[in-house]
Amino acid sequence: MALRPIITAPDPRLKLKSAAVDRFDGEIERLIDDMFETMYAAPGIGLAAIQLGIPKRLLVVDLARQDEPPAPRVFINPERLWVSDTLATYEEGCLSVPDHYADVQRPAQVVVRYRDRAGSACEETMDGMLATCLQHEMDHLDGVLFVDHLSLAKRSLILRKMAKAKKLAGASSA
Ligand code: NI
Hints:
- It contains 3 helices and 7 strands.
- It is of the alpha+beta class.
- It has a single domain (12-161), classed as Peptide deformylase (Peptide Deformylase, Alpha-Beta Complex), CATH 3.90.45.10.
- The strands form 2 sheets. It has a 5-stranded antiparallel sheet with strand order 1-2-3-6-7.
- Strand 6 and strand 7 (121-126) form a beta hairpin.
- The longest helix is centred in the last third of the chain and has 22 residues, at 152-173.
- The two termini are 30 Å apart.
- The structure holds nickel (II) ion.
- The site of nickel (II) ion has 5 residues, from helix 2.
């Protein structure tokens, strides 16, 4: 297992549409392990492969609280089969948009079809945090960030701050 650097916005790779995983081989196994290690170290509760620069439809999630044992989940090629009309609002953050948080409204319930780590087809009805987290991570697979759900003014403010912070970090390390 290895820690890999997480890509932060603004970065054109975060806007890519990721491609389906078609081979469940050792390479995918290693990528999954690295994604968990990187997510736990960050720390974060969800990570999509594109956040490590790999445009594959693969994401990992662990919603266990600090006092609970780890609950790692892997979702490969996830698809939304159904979303509820009822919406839920959660304050979201993203490892690719560090230090920024905002309320985002999404369907409260979703039915998702995906393949698990072994490649088996699964279907699951989700609500609460898991529904929100999955929708946030699935957005990444289509090049969408949580800030894209905000008003233009809020989004521009966050992205301007991100670009400035990046420039400053680049200048100090040069
Ligand atoms: Ni994210």
